[in-house]
Design a protein that fits this description.
Length: 173
């Protein structure tokens, strides 16, 4: 049995649902009222994959388009990043590129998963799946359509990121 600690960061514009995704994954619930994250909020969740037990630390960073020294500090030691856009706001899709580029500039070894959130709002959806696919392909990262409200693909997206971080874990002899 192995015990590992992995740290991931949630990145994306304001109000894309980063905090809601974390709450759904860690606590299993959804809070419909919006509360902006100020600075960083840290959550923990134990995760087991076979004989490997992880202490997953999830850092929910504020949706600030201009990186601060504090944000870069969190990215330095991160094992992975979940970069989130809002399917109802097309301007948030370009944030996938900005945040992925920034994450890789600060920490080129970090794993990355892209998430298009609010898939439950089908009538308001303003980004089509072909755009998402093209952007994800250009960034070399998998993407997931999620809904923090319904829970659709939330666990799958987080676990895909966890699996990627495990592939990047050095073997200790």
């Amino acid at each position: 049995m192995y015990q590992l600690r992995k740290k991931i960061c949630m990145l994306g514009s304001f109000a894309v649902g980063k905090t809601s995704l974390v709450r759904r994954f860690v606590e299993g619930n959804f809070e419909p009222t919006y509360r902006s994250t100020l600075g960083v909020h840290v959550s923990r969740k134990p995760v087991s994959i076979g004989a490997t037990h992880l202490d997953l630390i999830v850092c929910d960073l504020t949706g600030n388009e201009h990186f601060t020294g504090t944000q870069e500090h969190y990215l330095l030691g991160v094992d992975g990043g979940m970069i989130v856009c809002d399917l109802t706001r097309p301007e948030t899709l370009e944030a996938w590129r900005r945040y992925t580029t920034r994450l890789r500039a600060v920490n080129p070894y970090a794993a990355c998963v892209l998430v298009a959130n609010k898939s439950d709002l089908t009538k308001q959806q303003a980004i089509d799946e072909a755009e998402l696919h093209n952007m994800a392909e250009s960034l070399g990262a998998p993407f997931f359509l999620t809904s923090a409200k319904t829970g659709e693909n939330v666990e799958e997206a987080f676990m895909a990121l966890v699996h990627q971080t495990l592939k990047r874990t050095p073997v200790l002899l």
